[in-house]
Amino acid sequence: MNRQQYLFQKMNAWLEAKGYKSVFSLSNKDAGLDMDAVFRKEGVAPLVVEMRIMNAYRSQEFRALVGDAILRNRYGESERQPEGELFLAIMLKRMSPMVVKDLQDYAQRYLPSMNWLAMDEVGQGRACFSGVEESLSLPDAFRQEVDVRVQGSQGNVFSRKNQLLFKILLLAGIDKQYWGGPSRVPGSIGELAQISGVSQPSVSSFVMKAESAGFLKRSRGGFHIIRYRELLDEWFYSVKQQRRYEVGARFLYGEEPAERFVGKMREYCLKAKPGVDGPALIVGHHLACHLLKLGRSNVQFAKIYANRPVEEIMSALDLARDESSDPQLVLAVPPIGQPLLAGHVVCDGIPVSDVLQCYLDVRSSLARGNEQAEFILEKILMPHFERKPLC
């Protein structure tokens, strides 16, 4: 059970107690419709449900979420969203008093008929139904360990091949300065296999798993990724749990300005020349953000994805191993995975990871990584995702 399913389960039980029954839900969702569930009760208007999952309350993001839901309910196309009263269900890791305040404010100003439910992962929260507010205390808290799906049937949703397939579906059509992979959005399993170079049986398996996890839906027009934020959350946690062999490193001659180090990498990449297996290295993490002109701080920490023997690269870049807990940079040893090779871009002679990989890299950084990741998400990724039409 993922967060979306958990929220639906709790909301379903709560509404059933009020005499409503679900006639449309996650399990039978039509790919062309802009809602997550519909509940009906004889003699009253149906409830058109939108469910949203958030890790933490952020004012601007939360208000935009509520505002968008209201606009869709008021002005949505009839064939994509049936008439009915909006019911907005939201789950956060931890509740903030501002969640309720914002919901109250937006309902009062823009949609007095809006019903809403907001809860945390322990099942505590507040709801407003037919203008009456009540506290929530729902038993059986969500268990965090099921969220990090790195084992079992859904664990390989984020295998290396599947990460490449997700990236193609997510990033096709984005500005070429941020993504070097395919620009065409595939419309079928066969096309996705052809574009990605992944075998058709593997693509079919990916599609089934992504649908089961609630991140992908299909229509006659092709594929559509949904629940972007939850997808990125689970992707990040899954990759974080995977064991990867990385070598800590430090500069041989003390601190080295980023410009000089970038120059050394450029010179090495020029001499090494890309082979059939790709470039000699790909730069990720904070330094990649700066090379993409997306840096939000003076943090220049680098992660070098090595596509040549580590010792060769370290020698060429004047680096030495550093086994301390706080190295100046890290090298991820060969082989570079398909998601990086297929999607990297070249910035001033330096192979750099794509913008989504930068987001995943910096998110775990204690050195202003969350700030950098949020900037990439809000300024680059989400605007691109939201421009992608429904299939």
Description:
This protein is α+β, with helices and mostly antiparallel strands. The protein contains 13 helices and 16 strands. The strands form four sheets. The protein has a seven-stranded mixed sheet, sandwiched between helices. The two termini are 27 Å apart.
Keywords:
single chain, 391 residues, alpha+beta, seven-stranded mixed beta sheet, five-stranded mixed beta sheet, 13 helices, elongated
Q: Give the biggest beta sheet.
A: 7 strands, mixed
Helix content: 25-40%
Rounded average pLDDT: 85
Q: Strand content of the residues, in percent?
A: 15-25%
What is the number of E strands?
16
Shape: elongated
Please provide the ordered H/E string of secondary-structure elements.
HEEEHEHEEEHHHEEHEHEHEHEEHEEHH
Low-pLDDT runs of 5+ residues are 26-34, 144-155
Structural class estimated from helices and strands = alpha+beta
Distance between the termini: 27 Å
Count of runs of 4 or more consecutive helical residues: 13
Order the strands across the largest sheet as they lie in space. 1-2-3-4-5-6-7
Nearest-angstrom radius of gyration?
23 Å
